[in-house]
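Before relying on records like the one below, remember that each one covers exactly one chain. Contacts with other chains, cofactors or solvent are not represented anywhere in the record.
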Amino acid sequence: MSSVSQQGATSATTTTFLTALVFNGAVFAAEIIAFTLLRPYFKPIYEPRTVHLIENQRVKPFDGGLFSWPIALFKADYRDIERVNGPDAYLFVRFLRMMIRVLLPIWIISWAVLLPLTSVNNSVAGKTGLDRFTFGNVSPYNQPRYAGHLVCAYLFTFWIYWNIRREMSHFVTVRQLYLVDSKHSRSSQANTILVTGIPAKFQSEQALAQLYSHLPGGVKKVWLNRNLKDLPAVYNRRLSACNKLESAETNLIRTALKIRNKKLKGGEKVDDAYNDNPDQAERDIALAEKLVPKDKRPTHRLPPSFLPFSLPFVGEKVDTIEWARNEIVTCTTLLREARHALAEQSNPPATDVDGNGGTSHEDLPVQTYPPLSSAFITFKKQIAAHMAHRMLTHHDPYRMADRYLEVSPQDVIWGNLAMNPYEKRVRKVISYAATAALIIFWAIPVAFVGIVSNIQGLCVRESWLAWLCKIPSPVIGIIQGILPAVLLAVLNMLLPIVLRMLGSFEGIPTRTGLELSLMTRFFIFQVIHSFLIVTLSSGIIAALPSILKNPSSIATLLASYLPQASTFFLTYIVLQGLSGVAGSFLSIVQLVLYYVKLVLLGSTPRSIYNIKFGPRTVAWGTLFPSITLLTVVTFGYSIISPIINGLSVAAFFLFYLLYKYLFLYQYTQPPQLDTGGLFFPRAIQHVFVGLYVQQVCLCALFFLAQNASGKQAAVPEGALMVVLILLTAGYHIIINESYGPLISALPLSIADKTAADPDEPVPGDAHASTSADASNGKQWKATKGDAVPDPDREGEEQELDDYYFQKLADGAPDYGFAHPAVSRPQRVVWIPDDSDAWANAGDDGAAEVEGGGRRRGLGPAEVEVNSSQGISATTEGTKMDSKGHLEVFEAPVDVDKF
C-alpha cells in the first residue's frame, strides 16, 4: 500500500484526479494483460500451490482459460479459502466481501440523492469540477438541503450496524467451528495454555500438575520452561554448520563434474577413481580425493577471535567440509550431554528452606538448568484449557495472571518467556509511550524528505545553502526526483519493523500476538498520519490566505475548505484499486526475483526447494490496517464527498478478486500460526473508528455551516448528529459486550462437540505421554513408559537426539512445547545425487565398474562418509546432471521437523 503524503493532498485538483484516473487505468490494463499472457507459462510464480511437492499442500489447478480467467475467478467459491488457508485468510476475504455489500447500496443512494442535492441549482464561488459534488458546495441560501445529508447519515449508519452484527455472528460461528474441529481440537495447540509470572512455589512440573488437577480431565503434560543458557546458541551453530556442509558438498560435487567434463573434452580417461574395491572402508574418502584435488576443495576463513564474523584474507583458512563435519559432531555431543543432564535432573517443588514462612527462588534446589517463571500446561480436555485460561489462578497480584490460549510451538518467542510480571507491565507502558512519540515525531523525517524534494527552491531562498545551486542539473534532478521517493520508501519499510520491535520489547510471547499488537499500532499510525493530518492540514492550508484577510470568517472558511481534501483521497482510492491490484496480480518484482534467486542463491537442493516451494505468507499486522484505512477514508467522506463511494466499491471488489486468487493459489498460511480469525474482530473495531470519524466530521461541519446572514443554519442537524454519535457509541458497547466473551473462549455448551480425549492414542500415535509422568514430576522420556514402543529408536542416545513427545495420526513427530535445542534432531544434510552424471564417465560410455556394480556418484559416497562420522545425510529427492544443474523433485526428508 502506498503511503499518503500531505503535499499530495494540498495539490490534488480535479485535473490531477482525472489524470490519475486515466494513468492508473492504463497501468491497470497493461499489467492485467501482461498477467493474462504470463500466467499459464509461469505456474511456480502465479500458481505455486498447484505444483507443490507436498501433496497435502497442493490444490487443484486454476481452471480459468487464457482470457476467461476473470470470470472463473469471480465464480470461484471464496469459502474454499478456509479449507486451503484457514480462518484468518477466509475472514480477511470475508471482510472485503462485507465492505462490498456495505458500500454498494450506499453508493447507489448517495449518488442518486446527494450528488444532485449539492450540485443542481446550487453553487459556491470557486467550486468547480469535482468540488461541485462535495458538502462544501451547498450555498448559504440553500442550507435546508443539509437535511438530506443528515437523513443519509442515519440511513447509512443503521445499514452498517446491521452488517456489523451479521458479520460478528458469522465470525463467532466460524471461530467455534474451528475450535471444535476434530483435527484442531486434538492438537497440542488447542489443549495447551502458556502461563507466565509463576511464583517459585509452583516452578516444578509436579506442583503445576497438582494445581491444575482440579480441572476436567486433569493435566496431560507440564512443559516447564528453563534457562537453557548457551544451548540455543549451540543448536543454531549446528544448523548453520549443516547449511555450510550442504553448500560445500554441493560445490565439491559440481567441481568434480567440471573436472570430469574437462578431462572428457581433452580425451582423458576418468575411470580410475572407480576401479577400487567397493568393499574397502577407505573407498569413499579415496573417491573424493581422487576426483577433486585438495587445492580445489571448498574452503573458508574462520572469524578472528575479536569479531563475530569472518573477513576476507583475515583468519584461519580451513577445509569447509571437514570443519563443518567437526562442528556438527561437536554441537551434537554438547546437545546430547545437555539433554541427558535435563533428563536426569530432578525438580521437586520448592519448600521453605530458610523458615521464613514462604517460598522464594532461594528455596529452589540448585540445578544446572533452573526453571523460569513460565510453563506450558497441556490438558487432556480442550475445555479444561479454556477454563484455565479464564479462571483466577493465584491469590497474589500479577502472579500467573498472564495466560495465553491457542499457542503453538512454532508461534512462541522463546526469549520473552522469562519476564517478571512487574517488569512486563513497565515495559508495556514504555512501549506504548514510544509508539505515541513515534507517531508524534514521525513528521520530522517525512518533513526532511519534503525538504530534499525541493532543494532547488531552498538554495535560492536560503543564502547558506547557495552552494547547492552550483551542483550540476542532472545531479539536482536525481536528488530531487529519485532520492525523496527512495527515502520515503525506506521510512515506510522501517515503520512496521520498529513497531514490531516495540511489541517484542513489551514482552509479547507469541508471533501472532505480536501481529495483533502491530495491527492496532499500525492502524493508529495510519489513521493519524495518512488521514486526519492530511485532511486537516490540507483544509487549513487551503483556507489560510482567506483567514488571514478576514479572521472572523474562520468557521465558514473551514466548513468550505475541509471537504477539498476529498479530491486527493479520490486519487488515493483509484491508485490502490487499479495500480495496486493489477501490480499484485502481475507481481513483476516477484517474477524477476524468483529467477535471480535461482541463479544467485540456488546453490544447494534446500535453497532451490525454499525458493520454488517455500511458503508465501502475509503479515496480517500491516495488511489488515492498510485495508481498514480505506474503510475509514471511505466512511469519513461518504457523505462529504459521495463520489468516493463508487470508487471504493470498485476498489474493494478488485481487492476481493485479488486476495481470493492469492489465498487459493499462491499463499500458504501455516496452520500453527493461524489465530482462528482473531484479526477480524479488531478490523470491526476499525470500522467503528470510520463511523466515529464520519459522524464527528459531519457534526462539526453542521455546526460550522452559516447562512447568507452569517448565522448558524444547521444547528438542529448538528444536534441530531450528536445523538447519532451517542447511538454509535452505545451500539459499539453492546457489540463488544455481547460478542467479546465469545471471541476466544470455548463455550461449555459446545464442549461435547470437541474430539475425544487427546490422551487416548489415535492410530499411529506411538508416544502418548501419561498423566502420571506429569503429576509425579518425572522428566519426559519419549520412549520410556509409553503404550507402544517405537521400533525405529533403540538406545538412549538415539532417543535424546530426536526427543519427540508423540507421533500424530499422519506419522509426523510432535515435539510438544519442548525448546528446539532440547528436542530436535540434527537436520539431515541434503546432498545431490550425481550417480546418473557419472554413469557415462568412461570413454566407452559404460555404466559398470570393474568387478561389477553400477558406478556411484560422489554424492552417495559423501553420504556414507558423513554417516560414518555420525552425521545424518541423504541424496533422496534431488539430482545433479553432468553439467552441474540441480533438480529437486521431493521435499526434504525431515521437512516436518523443522
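The radius of gyration is 33 Å.
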